[in-house]
Design a protein that fits this description.
single chain, 450 residues, alpha+beta, outer membrane lipoprotein receptor (LolB), chain A, 13-stranded antiparallel sheet, two-stranded antiparallel sheet, 7 helices, 17 strands, globular
């Protein structure tokens, strides 16, 4: 792999122009020439990115709460297929990671491209809160925390890389819920053990009336229980996700079935391995990026038009089985969908004296939802090491664009990890409501011993 030394001149000029445009915008533009969350409402001059017209605002006919989400764009025709043979033709709109994947797996990796559908949406109260955050929200404690923000996107008119990444961390994902998902880390030959996870969560920041200053620095509560295979079943991780993790580090506990005890887990952070991930993902890679931002210097490069995974309802479908998706080296690209979207580009460079297995990370953040869609991750020798994709859909029962499947691909080892395989499981239950009192060590101990 050749080390990337920068963008080409055309791309760099476009990014700089996008950043200059963003700097000139104001709160009055939200809901006008900008979407309520701060994206450019207009399409692009080529007509390949359409105008945002509100996204998906209600479920399709026949959808019932608890169903897998039917594909509202199932009738779309394939526009193009990007392969190693024609990658140069699309290079200006590909991340360095996608270029590397196309080259590394020249015979099998491809990117099916479909018409761009700007499906992202959010509830009206989140739009209202976002507009109210302009001029009120601010970064505090060396940019490691946020104050003055309420429920919505804190910085819809970002001027720094930290503000963009905080928008990702605080984007709307409903009030809470329960989900059952699978995770695999196949060998190079494609052999894998399916790990089944039951996850429940409570988004403290998004509760009615909440704001960054009233939630006592607890952004969210999260619990993850392994239900299979038998050798791992019963292990439970519980997390209090803090807003400012330098001021008050993430609080985590693990229930161990062998010891039947609850123990503090201070290492569930940064580059420590994720749960049952076979070291194929770090703790801070779940949800594409989570946790403290203090180990990196963040630079806002600007905007770029990029082919990204989007409206990935095929990967979410209950018409597929896990074995249809999991293949050697990377997932089965036949079931993926890529679209051309505008993304914010943010580069994180490891600070002098700080430690992390990724010396540099380049994030591509969806302008419509503020979710991270693609990440290029470099090792300490400057080599492009891992590429992450967040295959998202609009969960139109709550109006939230969020990943249905995350894939973290290791270019050096030829392996990958896929998290979120829900095809054979009961779907997300966003009507499930937990409460803060469910996330105490005592409550964890009681659940573990049942």
């Amino acid at each position: 792999m050749k080390r990337n030394t920068g963008f080409n001149l055309i791309t760099a000029t476009a990014l700089a122009a996008g950043l200059a445009t963003a700097a000139a915008q104001s709160a009055s533009d939200l809901g006008g020439k900008l979407t309520p969350l701060g994206a450019e409402k207009a399409g692009n001059t080529a007509g390949t990115i359409p105008v945002w017209e509100g996204g998906i605002t209600q479920p399709p006919a026949g959808y019932k709460l608890g169903d897998h989400h039917p594909d509202p764009f199932a009738g779309d025709k394939l526009s193009a297929t990007i392969t190693s043979a024609n990658a140069d033709q699309y290079a200006a709109n590909l991340s360095e990671g996608h270029k590397a994947l196309l080259a590394r797996y020249a015979d099998t990796y491809k990117m099916p491209v479909y018409p761009t559908r700007r499906s992202a949406s959010a509830p009206q109260d989140i739009y209202d809160a976002t507009k109210a955050n302009v001029g009120s929200a601010k970064l505090v404690d060396g940019d490691n925390g946020v104050s003055g923000a309420s429920r919505g996107i804190p910085f819809p008119l970002p001027k720094t890389g930290q503000e963009v990444i905080w928008n990702h961390l605080l984007r709307y994902r409903g009030m809470g819920g329960l989900r059952k998902v699978g995770q695999v880390a196949p060998t190079r030959s494609g052999n894998y053990t399916l790990v089944q996870l039951e996850e429940q969560f409570l988004w403290n920041y998004h509760q009615t009336g909440a704001n960054a200053d009233s939630i006592k620095n607890v952004l969210a509560y999260f619990e993850q229980k392994v239900t299979s295979p038998a050798r791992l079943a019963g292990t439970i991780l519980m997390v209090h996700e803090t807003l400012d993790q330098v001021k008050d580090p993430r609080r985590a506990w693990v229930y161990n079935t062998g010891q039947r005890r609850v123990r503090r887990a201070p290492n569930v952070a940064y580059d420590n391995p994720g749960t049952a991930s076979d070291s194929m993902r770090t703790s801070d890679q779940l949800d594409m990026f989570n946790g403290a931002i203090d180990r990196y210097d963040w630079q806002l490069i600007g905007k770029q038009e990029l082919y990204v995974p989007y409206n990935s309802y095929k990967l979410h479908s209950d018409q597929l089985k896990v074995e249809d998706i999991v293949t050697p080296m990377h997932i089965n690209q036949e079931h993926t969908r890529y679209e051309l979207h505008r993304v914010w580009v943010v580069e994180a460079t490891l600070k002098e004296g700080k430690r992390h297995i990724y010396a540099k990370r380049r994030f591509y953040v969806d302008e419509d939802s503020w979710g991270v869609l693609v990440v290029d991750q470099y090792d300490n020798q400057g080599r492009l090491w891992r590429v992450s994709e967040g295959h998202g859909i609009n969960y139109y029962d709550i109006l939230s664009f969020w990943s249905t499947l995350e894939v973290h691909m290791d270019l050096l080892s030829g392996r990958y990890l896929a998290h979120g395989l829900d095809n054979e499981n009961k779907m997300y239950d966003f009507s499930y409501r937990s409460k803060a009192g469910d996330y105490t060590p005592a409550a964890l101990r009681r659940r573990g011993r049942r």
